[in-house]
């Protein structure tokens, strides 16, 4: 205490240490709680995204199996074979022959028409008579002769294609998912019902993928009886009464959500849960809370350690400042030197109320005004550069700023797209000017977003026409592919626009690939433009194309033919060009989409 009473420097240092340590501890605590909450929200958001993806994959898989079952039931050869089998007397040689023919037709339709990968997802395909629901054919012969009169898939399957929610089988109580559909005779009369059990292990595999869950994450499916939908975990002895948790129970009540709770094993987890009503299953995605919040723990400890280190270092600085407190003029001089070096964040300490203190105050006011002036200049410069980048591509703008007077470049291979909105001018004739501009701006803003997302260069708009290019001002090998994808997206934009506004607009798009010259023209209201025969040809592809279609030249077709579907228009007379071989772009090939 004696030292603190006698030394101002010691008191200043001690008070600073006390306050700083309290502030650092408080800051570390607040940082930890905020980081933990943020980490929790991020984990929940991640799980929701993961769950959305898994739900999408599940729905797509189920839709594929429904389509397979329906297509099998609609095969003329299978319907005829089933009709012939039902017409034969059971046990006769003719019946056995008809049974073999039906089996052969089913095998060929399943493994040849639809592919073995799809067929492997159906564990059993069977057919039931219209009266009584008797199984007269099955890929599991032991089931033939059974009656399924009261089964829901038989009752509903006589009316329409039906997906029965996961249910326990009567003999093993194992979870089962069944698709059924009406089975008609060649003359259209109802013969019975064709049904198939879907392989649930595929759903388990989709859900069990660790994507987005980390090493400690877990995703699983639970049926309405609180049982795992997994062959190795179904009826697990550890959970004789099923699995239960807040997430599972909430999902089984038909609700979806996420939060922090204890899982079925009593471990704290951060989880996302949702109900899949069409399947009668709960989809649960969880990760241990300790693993999810580990970054927050490390961050809190790091903040505390760095803060205490900073307090120690600042304590030394405070002590040195206390030594110099009697030398205000030196402090002002030091501040002046720092500011002259370019650090305008410095201010001179006002240590007294005399002339030196007044000098320090006036000096600080002068520096504050200077800093504000420089900040305003920097803000105006940033605004000017932003406006310039809205007019010109970034590489071209940089060249202009570095003093190039004439900018003109040749590009050996680019792809150009022209798009024109059909019927927009007649439609706009009866609308106010503001509404016309608003509608056109809405469409072109979405086009701009598509171009920016795929790295295309917007050249210009003329009325209701829109022009972009790929491969300029920076060459790229996939110029044709990105333009093709953008064109397909533009068709979707117009479709969505019509749905929102009740309009009947359509778009006509033309695409061509080839060499161009690009540059900046003008000194006032200058623009970045492109020229060349490839540009004119792309314009002709649009102007002489088909409403609602994408017409491309043979040059572009050579880039896209392996990955996209086309309609060959053959030789078309193009104004100013003569006959040209053109194609209509329809979409990406299915195998290219899967890749």
Task: Give descriptors for this structure.
alpha+beta; eight-stranded mixed β-sheet; 19 helices; 50% helix; 24% strand
How would you sum up this structure in a few lines?
With 595 residues, the protein is an alpha+beta fold. The protein has 19 helices and 17 strands.
What does this structure look like?
The protein has helices at residues 2-6, 8-73, 76-87, 93-113, 116-119, 152-157, 200-208, 246-252, 289-292, 294-323, 328-340, 355-391, 394-401, 424-428, 433-454, 479-501, 533-543, 554-560, 590-594, and strands at residues 122-129, 135-138, 162-168, 175-184, 190-198, 217-223, 257-262, 268-276, 281-288, 408-422, 457-462, 465-470, 506-521, 527-531, 550-553, 564-574, 578-588. It is α+β, with helices and mostly antiparallel strands and 595 residues long. The strands form three sheets. Strands 10, 11, 12, 13, 14, 15, 16 and 17 form an eight-stranded mixed β-sheet that branches. It has a five-stranded antiparallel β-sheet with strand order 2-1-5-4-3. The protein is flat, with a radius of gyration of 37 Å. The chain starts with a helix and ends with a helix. Mean pLDDT is 79; it is low at 113-118.
Number of helices, counting only DSSP H or I runs of 4 residues or more: 19
Main sheet, how many strands, which sense, barrel? 8 strands, mixed
Strand content: 15-25%
Assign the structural class, choosing from mainly alpha, mainly beta, alpha/beta, alpha+beta, or little secondary structure. Answer: alpha+beta
Radius of gyration of CA atoms, rounded to a whole number: 37 Å
What does the overall shape look like?
flat
Low-confidence stretches: 113-118
- The proportion of residues forming helix, as a percent range, comes to 40-55%
Instruction: State mean pLDDT (0 to 100 scale).
Output: 79
| Straight-line N-to-C gap | 77 Å
Number of strands: 17
Domain Guanylate cyclase: 415-542
Protein name: HAMP domain-containing protein
Family: Belongs to the adenylyl cyclase class-4/guanylyl cyclase family.
InterPro entries: A/G_cyclase, A/G_cyclase_CS, Cyclic_nucleotide_synthase, dCache_1, HAMP_dom, Nucleotide_cyclase
């Amino acid at each position: 205490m004696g030292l603190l009473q006698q030394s101002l420097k010691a008191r200043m240092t001690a008070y600073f240490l006390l306050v700083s340590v309290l502030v650092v501890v408080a800051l570390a605590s607040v940082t930890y709680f905020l980081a933990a909450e943020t980490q929790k929200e991020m984990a929940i958001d991640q799980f929701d995204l993961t769950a959305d993806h898994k739900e999408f994959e599940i729905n797509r898989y189920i839709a594929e199996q429904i389509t397979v079952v329906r297509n099998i039931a609609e095969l003329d050869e299978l319907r005829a074979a089933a009709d012939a089998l039902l017409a034969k007397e059971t046990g006769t040689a003719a019946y056995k022959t008809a049974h073999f023919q039906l089996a052969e037709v089913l095998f060929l339709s399943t493994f040849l028409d639809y592919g073995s990968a799809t067929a492997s997802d159906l564990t059993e395909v069977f057919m039931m008579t219209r009266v009584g629901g008797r199984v007269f054919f099955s890929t599991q012969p032991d089931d033939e002769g059974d009656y399924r009169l009261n089964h829901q898939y038989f009752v509903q399957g006589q009316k329409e294609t039906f997906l029965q929610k996961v249910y326990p089988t009567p003999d093993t109580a194992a979870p089962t998912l069944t698709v059924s559909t009406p089975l008609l005779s060649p003359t259209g009369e109802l013969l019975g019902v064709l049904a198939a059990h879907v392989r649930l292990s595929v759903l388990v595999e989709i859900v069990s993928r660790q994507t987005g869950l980390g090493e400690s994450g877990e995703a699983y499916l639970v049926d309405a009886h609180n049982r795992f939908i997994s062959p190795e975990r179904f009826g697990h002895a550890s959970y004789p009464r099923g699995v239960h948790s807040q997430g599972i129970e909430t999902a089984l009540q038909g609700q979806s959500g996420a939060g922090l709770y204890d899982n079925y094993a009593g471990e704290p987890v951060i989880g996302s849960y949702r109900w899949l009503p069409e399947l009668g299953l709960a989809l649960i995605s969880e990760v241990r809370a300790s693993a999810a919040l580990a970054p927050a723990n490390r961050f809190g400890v790091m903040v505390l350690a760095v803060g205490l280190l900073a307090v120690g270092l600042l304590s030394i600085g405070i002590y040195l400042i206390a030594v110099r407190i009697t030398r205000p003029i030196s402090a002002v001089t030091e501040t002046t030197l720092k500011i002259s070096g370019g650090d305008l964040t410095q201010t001179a300490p006002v240590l007294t109320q005399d002339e030196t203190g007044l000098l320090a105050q006036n000096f600080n006011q002068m520096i504050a005004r200077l800093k504000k002036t420089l900040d305003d200049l920097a803000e105006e410069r940033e605004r000017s550069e932003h406006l310039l980048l809205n007019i010109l591509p970034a590489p071209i703008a940089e060249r202009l700023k570095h003093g190039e007077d004439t900018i003109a470049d040749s590009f050996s291979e680019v792809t150009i797209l022209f798009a024109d909105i059909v019927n927009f001018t007649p439609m706009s004739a009866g609308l106010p000017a503001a509404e016309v501009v608003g509608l056109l701006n809405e469409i072109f803003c979405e086009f701009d977003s598509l171009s920016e997302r795929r790295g295309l260069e917007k050249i210009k708009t003329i009325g209701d026409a829109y022009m972009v290019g790929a491969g300029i001002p920076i060459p790229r090998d996939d110029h044709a592919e990105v333009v093709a994808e953008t064109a397909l997206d533009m068709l979707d934009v117009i479709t969505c626009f019509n749905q929102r506004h009740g309009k009947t607009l359509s778009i006509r798009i033309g695409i061509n690939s080839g060499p161009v010259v690009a540059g900046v023209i003008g000194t006032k209201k200058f623009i970045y433009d492109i020229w060349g025969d490839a540009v004119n040809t792309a314009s002709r592809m649009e102007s002489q194309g088909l409403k609602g279609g994408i017409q491309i030249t043979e040059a572009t077709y050579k880039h896209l033919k392996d990955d996209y579907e086309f309609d060959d228009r053959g030789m078309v007379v193009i104004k100013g060009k003569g006959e040209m071989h053109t194609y209509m772009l329809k979409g990406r090939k299915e195998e290219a989409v899967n890749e």
